[in-house]
């Protein structure tokens, strides 16, 4: 951390070329809660526990360490960027100011669609908790009904303003910590059915092949868990002292999320009465049975209510982050319907039109899933993860490019001389993660094996067509590629503030 004099939030924003339009009512803890409920280890572990176990067995838990370490490096890079550019939208303004308009347009276009698909996936996975909580059968019809209900309730809550968003995020954080850490510890201490050595036992998941291939196949166990921390930066203009607080909130999200995921995943493995059936793929939804065995019917029901709260908070945080990204995109005139999308409610100070879009498109995708195949949800979820990693690494690559050109981040959060090494390592990790996500399957079904890359190609291709035909970059005069220049201006402003303060 640098010890120089911090600029006032409004003055920092003015150096970046923007005026204050939002209410800065979000504290460090509320900002951390937003990122944590978006990352949501409870949602991630519950959604992929059975798949991870069937693919890689108990040792798949080590992916949590690997991915948490890699994404922590990414969060450090993001921290330096957001500390210099604490403005709404995260990925889009960061890539624009670090590289340029066209580069930012493609990164943000891919990220918007990845976020929209993620909202859909979380609402769909959450519908199972709604059904279980009320003792209803989970059919295609109830999945659609409860998914739509989660999306609409989150939209209504988001409409009420930043204070409600922060309040629900804090409630979601409490639900996550109880549902993940408390339950995980209880399972580890009081309900253990397996020895700790089981984490080094593949339990035959590799068959006649090499275990390394099975372990690599289980990478989703970690890759699905550790994104969401960038949402802390999506709402930067609603956070007080964002240049210092948002980097802290991002790092806290990864660290607390990592501990939570380890306790949760490890607890389920050790408390499973029939672990072999899960590893064999015979039990595709094992967590309810594990919880009922360990906590009893009443305890399992309480957990379902807590988990449902976490899912709702996760959808809420996702909608909020997506709407701020769209608002930021629209404010610079870079997206179709930008005048409508860039409107902010004069009463609640939230981008209501962007929120409507962040709810409506996932709602339409839910309807498509209802009328489509049952595998569509898994396929769109896989695309979302790859799209998010591509957008993340667009920031990491752009930051490294600026460092090579001489950029020294000027925000109050700085890694100093270590920044270059951290940036290189974060990029290397990101390329490795994208390879694992994009690697085609081996089922023999062309569409199923290549669907993730096909999805990325469709989104990137349509974005490139619009970019080169409509030329939104030519219609926008907002600043871009100015990282070195802005760093100099910020340092000059900081010196002036220190001299007068």
Automatic annotation (TrEMBL):
This is Amino acid transporter. Pfam families: AA_permease_2 (PF13520). Keywords: Membrane, Transmembrane, Transmembrane helix, Transport. It is a multi-pass membrane protein. The keyword Transport applies. Its main location: membrane. It is found in: Membrane. InterPro entries: AA/rel_permease1 (IPR002293). The keyword Hydrolase does not apply. The chain crosses the membrane at residues 28-49, 61-82, 103-123, 143-161, 173-191, 211-229, 249-271, 302-329, 350-371, 377-400, 412-438, 450-469.
């Amino acid at each position: 951390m640098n010890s120089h004099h911090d600029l006032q939030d409004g003055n920092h924003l003015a150096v970046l070329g923007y005026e204050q339009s939002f209410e800065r009512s979000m504290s460090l803890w509320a900002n951390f809660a937003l990122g944590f409920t978006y990352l949501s280890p409870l949602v991630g572990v519950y959604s992929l526990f059975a798949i991870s176990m069937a693919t890689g067995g108990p040792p798949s838990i080590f992916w949590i360490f690997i991915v948490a370490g890699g994404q922590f490096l990414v969060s450090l890079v993001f921290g330096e960027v957001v500390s210099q550019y604490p403005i709404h939208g995260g990925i889009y303004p960061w890539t624009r100011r670090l590289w340029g308009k066209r580069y930012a347009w493609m990164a943000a276009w891919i990220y918007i669609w990845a976020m929209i698909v993620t909202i859909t996936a979380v609402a769909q996975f959450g519908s199972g908790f709604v059904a279980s909580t009320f003792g209803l059968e989970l059919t295609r019809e109830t999945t659609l009904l409860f998914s739509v209900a989660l999306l609409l309730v989150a939209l209504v809550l988001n409409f009420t303003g930043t204070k409600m968003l922060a309040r629900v995020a804090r409630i979601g954080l409490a639900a996550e910590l109880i549902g993940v850490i408390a339950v995980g510890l209880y399972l580890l201490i009081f309900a253990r059915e397996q020895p700790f050595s089981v984490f080094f036992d593949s339990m035959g998941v590799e068959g006649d092949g090499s275990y390394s291939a099975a372990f690599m196949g289980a990478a989703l166990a970690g890759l699905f868990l550790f994104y969401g921390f960038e949402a802390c930066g999506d709402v930067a203009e609603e956070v007080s002292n964002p240049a210092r607080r948002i980097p802290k909130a991002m790092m806290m999200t990864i660290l607390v999320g990592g501990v939570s995921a380890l306790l949760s995943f490890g607890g389920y493995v050790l408390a499973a009465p029939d672990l072999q059936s899960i590893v064999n793929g015979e039990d595709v939804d094992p967590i309810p049975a594990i919880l009922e065995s360990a906590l009893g019917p009443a305890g399992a029901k309480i957990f379902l209510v807590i988990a449902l709260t976490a899912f709702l908070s996760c959808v809420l945080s996702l909608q909020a982050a997506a709407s701020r990204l769209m608002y930021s995109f629209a404010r610079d005139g870079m997206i179709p319907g930008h005048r409508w999308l860039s409107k902010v409610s004069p009463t609640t100070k939230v981008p209501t039109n962007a929120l409507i879009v962040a709810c409506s498109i996932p709602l339409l995708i839910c309807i498509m899933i209802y009328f489509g195949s049952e595998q569509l949800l898994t396929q769109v979820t896989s695309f979302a993860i790859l799209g998010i990693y591509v957008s993340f690494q667009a920031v990491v690559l752009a930051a490294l490019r600026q460092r090579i050109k001489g950029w020294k981040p000027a925000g109050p959060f700085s890694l100093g001389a270590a920044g270059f090494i951290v940036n290189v390592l974060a990029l290397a990790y990101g390329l490795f993660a994208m390879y694992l996500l994009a690697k085609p399957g081996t089922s023999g079904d062309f569409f199923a094996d290549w669907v993730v890359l096909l999805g990325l190609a469709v989104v990137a291709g349509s974005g490139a067509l619009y970019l080169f035909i409509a030329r939104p970059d030519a219609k926008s005069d907002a600043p871009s590629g100015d990282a070195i220049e802005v760093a100099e201006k910020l340092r000059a402003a900081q010196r002036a503030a220190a001299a007068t303060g």
